[in-house]
Every structure is written in structure tokens, then in C-alpha cells.
């Protein structure tokens, strides 16, 4: 096996979007400096320094509290990105991710190509990364501190260069070993500053002197004992952020980070084989205030370009309250991808046409409002006036024909017969009264029956309805749908054919 460790040494700064800050900035915890950016380091600010000492050296130093929660969220996003290369990904808090590269090498067929893929991805995100590669998870994790290029330790075919790996492990500082502080201090006092000097000693003697922990660590380091790590799984909700030093002042500047967040969402949905039904956006302004807004979606496939148009359309109705420091996107509602096959020449119900319809509905809902967009939908009712119901355009589910090769059952089996029956395009609500005389039927003119009757008999469990429907021609030439109520013996006009 071949393990790669991705270590982010400046993750606390990067999680806050402050790693590229031009001003002097430092992160604090319990009044102690835990990390400083490059400008602050050049002014003499160092980790472990007290806040009072740091401010005495640089009065213009900006101090921010360290945000562990945001760091772990950022680390989880890196793991989610790495999940596209390997199904075996592990989190190594506080600032590293491990992944097994066997499948990735079979895909890319070249270690140099895979290495450049990782480096270019981190550069696009503006993140600094150190890589470590080895035959065991622990060895890769420790070598990532040295940031040795993987191409020096592994051949292009993915074979480990044993001599180079042996030399790199021997040069590792012993203070990097995952041992308790007392053991590490004792090793330093004994002059064992590098792993090579420790490995020259008998394993049994080390175990007697320091306990079993050191023997277990060395065994895991060389693959003599299994090093089982909890695997990373994609979270049930999607959550991503973009931070901007100094803030963004216009909606046009937000378009690029919106596109980047949607790209991350697309990757997440591909991993989980699902579609999102919502997008919850939030602006974090420089003054500390927040503004949340959301989008409900009805798409059948993920289309990043159309989603960008929807988001920009939604932004038109918003006014920025100030410079945007952080843009976050969260999705909580998901459905499974629809897996279906269309007939070769089935163009009327093609998925592309359905997707265009969904996109148009989403745009209409944004422009007109969610409460103003509705669809007529079929429902299971015997009487014609009850067959159609007005539903919300977002929640209404269009009916689909049976899949090719599958027999129609139940209500679907009756559709071919109902298609042969003529039905009007327009219904009168309520039905209009028709006058019946000895000369015939009259409704704003004479009606001539052409076809019928067709019996409707139902609603016996509520109030029975028995009707005989006919197709009639009005004296002005229009075709009408009329019926005779068999219970009260009266005639009614129920609709017109287009």
C-alpha cells in the first residue's frame, strides 16, 4: 500500500482567510500567540509569545482568536476533496489528511501527474501544503513534516524507492513521534535527536526502558503492526465557505466565489449520488452582522451554469449592507438521482426538456415569488371537475410514462383507453344550466347533440353523481361538452373543445 499525507501547516490562518493578509496579524489563545502571518513574523512576532510582549514589539498588530471549529470544517472540506482520488481517506487532526493512493495510481498511471494534480489544486485554493508519502500511514504522517517531494521517494510507476525512504525516516526528529512528553524529553536528554539513532537500539531494551508505547509506534511505523485509522465519510449536509481579506464590496465580485462554491457542491453531490433541493447562503459582513437568504430548487440534474444564473438573479433583489468578509453555502435537503432510460425516439418526454422546464420554473419563482407560481396536476378523481388540482410549482411532481420495457399497471394501464376519449380543453366552473324545450337544447343558442352518451357514475360514498355526457355543436359552430344529470333530469354545459 502507498499512503499520502496532506499537511496544512498554516491551517489556523487559512481557516480564517488571513494567510494572505498584507497587514500584521496573529492568532491568540489564552493570551498566548499561537500563530502569526509572514508580516508579523518579520516584525519579530513568534508562536508562544505573550500577547503583551507581542503588542510591545508591534502596536499595529491585529489579534484574532483561534477558531478550532472553523479549522476542522476546513480540514473536512480538504478530506472531501481528497475523496475523489481515494475511497480510503482519514482525518489526522489538527491539520492533516491521509489517503491511500493505490487506486489513484492505477487511474493516473504516473506519480508525477498525480503529484502535480495535488499541488495545482492547493495553489488554486491559495493553501500551503506539505506532502509525505510512505508505505504506512504513520510514516507518511511523519514525513509530511519534512515536506519531501513524493517523486523522490516513489518511482513514476508507484514503486517505493527503499533506500531513499530509509534515509528519510532515519533523518526524522524523534520529537515528531506520537509519544508522551516525558518519553520525548528523555530521548532528547539521551542525545537521540533523530529516528535513526533510536532504531539502532534493540527493540526489547527500548520497551523495558520506555514501555510498550514506543515499541508499538516503531512497529506501526515500519508496517509490522496494523495502523487502523477511522475512515472519513462525506457528511450528511454540505457546508462550505470562502473568506475575503478586507471584504468584497460589490455583487460582481461575488460571482467568482459563488462559482467556486458551486463547484465544490457539484463534487459533493457526485460523491453521494444525489441532488440538492435547497441552497442556504449567508453573508458575513466586516462589522460582524450576517444576512441569510435561500433558494429552493426543482432541477433534475446539476447544472452549475444555470445555478449561477439563478443565484445572480436572486442577488438582484438584495442590497449589500457592507463589505462581505465571508460567503457560506449550506445544503440540507437532498434527493437521490433519478436513474431512468428513455426510448430512442422519445423526444416529447426527454430529460433535457424536463430539465429546461425546471429551470424556467425556478426563474419564474425568483422573479414573481414562490406563492405566485402554480401548476395544474392530475389527481385520482372520477368527476371531471375534480381531476385537476392546482399545486405549488416547486412541490408538484410531473407524471411520467412507464419505463421502456416495463408493463403498465393500475392507473397507468387505463391511460391508453382514456387517451382515445375526447375531453375539452376548457371546463366551466360551475357547469352552466342548459334550457330544454320541445324544440331542443338551448344555451345562448341552439345545441345539436353529435356523440354520446358516456356514463359517469361515482361519488356514492359522499353524494352520488350520475351523468350522461355528450358532445354537442353550438349553432355558432363551437364544439361543447354537455351532460344530463340522471338524478335531477336537468342538462348542463361543462366545457368547450379548443
Any overview of this molecule?
The chain is of the alpha+beta class and 498 residues long. The chain has four domains: 3-16 and 67-221, Reverse transcriptase/Diguanylate cyclase domain (Alpha-Beta Plaits); 242-336, DNA polymerase, Y-family, little finger domain (Dna Ligase, domain 1, 2-Layer Sandwich); 369-399, no CATH class; 426-496, no CATH class. The chain contains 17 helices and 21 strands. It has helices at 11-15, 38-42, 51-57, 68-82, 102-108, 111-124, 137-143, 150-153, 162-170, 181-189, 195-199, 203-210, 212-221, 251-272, 304-315, 351-368, 415-419, and strands spanning 3-7, 25-29, 32-36, 62-65, 89-92, 96-100, 130-134, 238-248, 274-276, 278-285, 290-296, 324-331, 334-336, 374-378, 388-392, 426-437, 440-442, 446-458, 465-474, 479-485, 490-496. The strands form six sheets. It has a six-stranded antiparallel β-barrel with strand order 16-17-18-19-20-21. The longest helix is centred in the middle third of the chain and has 22 residues, at 251-272. Mean pLDDT is 84; it is low at 396-419.
Which features would summarize this protein structure in a list?
Alpha-Beta Plaits; 4-stranded antiparallel beta sheet; 27% strand; Dna Ligase, domain 1; single chain; 498 residues; 4 domains; 33% helix; 6-stranded antiparallel beta barrel; alpha+beta
Amino acid at each position: 500500500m502507498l499512503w499520502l499525507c496532506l499537511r496544512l501547516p498554516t491551517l489556523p490562518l487559512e481557516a480564517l482567510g488571513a494567510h494572505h493578509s498584507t497587514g500584521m496579524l496573529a492568532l491568540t489563545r489564552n493570551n498566548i500567540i499561537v500563530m502569526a502571518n509572514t508580516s508579523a513574523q518579520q516584525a519579530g512576532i513568534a508562536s508562544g509569545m505573550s500577547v503583551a510582549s507581542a503588542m510591545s514589539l508591534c502596536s499595529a498588530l491585529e489579534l484574532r482568536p483561534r477558531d478550532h471549529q472553523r479549522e476542522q470544517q476546513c480540514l473536512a472540506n480538504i478530506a472531501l476533496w481528497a475523496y475523489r482520488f481515494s475511497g480510503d481517506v482519514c482525518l489526522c487532526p489538527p491539520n492533516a489528511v491521509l489517503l491511500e493512493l493505490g487506486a489513484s495510481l492505477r487511474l493516473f498511471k504516473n506519480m508525477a501527474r498525480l503529484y502535480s494534480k495535488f499541488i495545482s489544486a492547493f495553489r488554486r485554493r491559495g493553501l500551503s501544503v506539505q506532502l509525505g508519502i510512505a508505505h504506512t500511514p504513520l510514516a507518511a504522517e511523519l514525513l509530511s513534516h519534512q515536506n519531501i517531494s513524493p517523486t523522490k521517494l516513489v518511482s513514476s510507476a508507484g514503486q517505493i524507492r527503499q533506500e531513499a525512504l530509509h534515509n528519510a525516516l532515519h533523518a526524522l526528529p524523534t520529537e515528531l513521534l506520537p509519544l508522551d512528553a516525558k518519553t520525548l524529553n528523555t530521548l532528547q536528554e539521551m542525545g537521540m535527536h533523530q529516528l535513526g539513532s533510536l532504531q539502532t537500539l534493540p527493540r526489547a531494551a527500548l520497551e523495558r526502558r520506555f514501555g510498550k508505547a514506543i515499541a508499538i509506534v516503531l512497529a506501526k511505523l515500519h508496517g509490522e503492526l496494523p495502523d487502523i485509522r477511522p475512515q472519513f465519510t462525506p457528511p450528511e449536509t454540505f457546508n462550505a465557505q470562502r473568506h475575503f481579506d478586507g471584504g468584497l464590496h460589490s455583487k460582481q465580485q461575488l460571482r467568482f466565489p459563488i462559482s467556486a462554491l458551486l463547484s465544490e457542491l457539484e463534487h459533493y453531490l457526485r460523491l453521494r449520488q444525489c441532488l440538492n433541493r435547497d441552497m442556504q447562503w449567508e453573508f458575513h459582513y466586516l462589522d460582524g452582522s450576517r444576512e441569510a437568504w435561500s433558494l429552493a430548487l426543482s432541477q433534475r440534474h446539476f447544472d452549475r451554469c444555470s445555478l449561477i444564473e439563478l443565484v445572480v438573479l436572486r442577488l438582484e433583489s438584495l442590497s449589500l449592507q457592507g463589505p462581505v468578509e465571508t460567503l457560506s453555502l449550506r445544503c440540507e435537503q437532498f434527493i437521490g438521482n433519478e436513474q431512468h432510460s428513455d426510448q430512442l425516439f422519445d423526444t416529447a418526454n426527454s430529460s433535457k426538456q424536463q430539465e429546461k422546464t425546471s429551470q424556467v420554473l425556478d426563474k419564474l419563482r425568483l422573479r414573481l415569488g414562490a406563492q405566485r407560481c402554480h401548476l395544474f396536476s392530475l389527481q385520482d378523481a372520477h368527476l371531471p371537475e375534480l381531476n385537476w388540482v392546482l399545486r405549488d410549482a416547486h412541490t408538484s411532481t410531473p407524471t411520467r410514462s412507464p419505463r421502456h420495457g416495463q408493463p403498465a399497471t393500475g392507473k397507468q394501464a387505463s391511460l391508453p383507453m382514456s387517451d382515445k376519449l375526447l375531453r375539452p380543453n376548457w371546463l366551466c366552473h360551475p357547469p352552466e344550466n342548459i334550457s330544454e324545450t320541445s324544440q331542443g337544447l338551448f344555451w345562448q343558442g341552439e345545441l345539436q347533440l353529435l356523440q354520446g352518451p358516456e356514463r359517469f357514475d361515482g361519488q356514492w360514498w359522499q353524494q352520488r353523481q350520475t351523468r350522461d355526457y355528450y358532445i354537442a355543436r353550438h349553432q355558432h359552430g363551437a364544439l361543447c361538452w354537455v351532460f344530463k344529470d340522471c338524478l335531477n333530469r336537468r342538462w348542463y354545459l361543462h366545457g368547450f373543445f379548443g
